[in-house]
Amino acid sequence: MPISGVKQALYGIEALSAAEKCRNTSPCIHTYVFTLSLTFVHDSCMILIVDDKPENIFSLKTILELHSFPTDTALSGEEALKKILRHSYALIILDVQMPGMDGFEVAEAISGSSKARDIPILFLSAANTDKKFITKGYSSGGMDYITKPIDPDILLLKVKTFYRLYEQNRELNRIQSSLRSEIEFRKKVEGELQEAMRKKDEFISIASHELKTPLTTIKAYIQLLERAVDPGDPTRMYVDRTLVQVQKLNNLIVDLLDLSKIESGKLKFNKKVFNFETTLSNALEMIRQTYPDYQFVLKGQADVQLYGDDMRIEQVLINYLTNAVKYSPDNKEIRIDVELRPDKKLYVQVRDFGIGIQKDHQSNIFSKFYRVEDAANRFQGLGIGLYICAEIIRRHDGAYGVDSEPGKGSVFYFYIPVAVNVTLSQQSVGQI
After folding, report:
1. Of the residues 91, 123, 150, the one at which a domain ends
2. Nearest-CA neighbor of 255 among 355, 353, 323, 327?
3. Which of 95, 119, 150 is the last residue of a domain?
4. Partners of 336 in beta bridges
5. In this prediction, what percent of the chain has a pLDDT beyond 70?
6. Which of 3-17, 140-154, 375-389 has the highest mean pLDDT?
7. pTM for this model (two decimals)
8. Could you give phi then psi for residue 289, rounded to 5 degrees?
């Protein structure tokens, strides 16, 4: 049914008067309003008005455009469906009683379209508002309804509400799309980073293996040369120095191989029950031969049984002792303290009286490739030895740390549980 003649006339006069007022005020203002309206239509989705009565469309269109809502129109359900396929709309104002397809049929067709199903539909009708009518409207896909004759204020309130929701949904969709793009980008970067890390680990592993073979041969020949040279021969000093440097290179290659195994999850541990005192004695004997000018002072009882990989624990001890020597060039005393604590954990610390470490660097000292900037300029190294030590201690259910003061030296320590009730089945080769 059409809107009442009085209401229709009032809407038309109101719209024409407002437009005439704009034109009479200033040509510049008229031009500005016209340009703004075109920009709004271009940038925002329109409201589609569907009614078989041109006079009803004119009235609704006038009310909405006076309040800066861009509109589009269709005189039938069929025309409306064609336009919906071609354009996007923020809201559809749909008359119920139309020849051909009525409003309910159009709404059902829209709700079945993947492109248009989310467009809110506001029904217009002069029909009664009983429960059956309202139920049919909502079940057809409508979001709300308004009855004729139309109250412009109520119409504008409902349109503004739906339009605001549309703008909010569009903004949410924009944010969601942006987040999705960000996630995809990060996944791509992460994949590229993982591939680069894999290639890096593969290169380190291959290079280390290739270096280890000729280095072993060189070391063997130098050891033969050492035996052939008389202890009093002046060249013996150069042979000994060469052996020290070869051993440093060998330790570096071993560290690189261990790093590659840690990164790939293939670092093996041959766990068994062993005596820690024997392991510590072997480490001290090796380090004393390498650094005969240093004094290594052992304090405490080390005669305890541990369950783990004795070679890996010895590797930790040698690394701690080597670092103590390296970073205390002016003080030749290194102290090793061993203590069995009441909680059945063996505590081991290595103390030097060297350059020390600043407080803000201590939390990162066991990180991979981390080196204190001041020390890196004076002492050689890659910053992976302590990282490997930390991994070994973790795999033995232990803990580690450092206490240091610049200019007074450092204490590197670790503690691991002693062997208690270890079964024979546990004393096997393990890969972690």
Report:
1. 150
2. 323
3. 150
4. 298, 350
5. 83
6. 140-154
7. 0.51
8. -70, -35
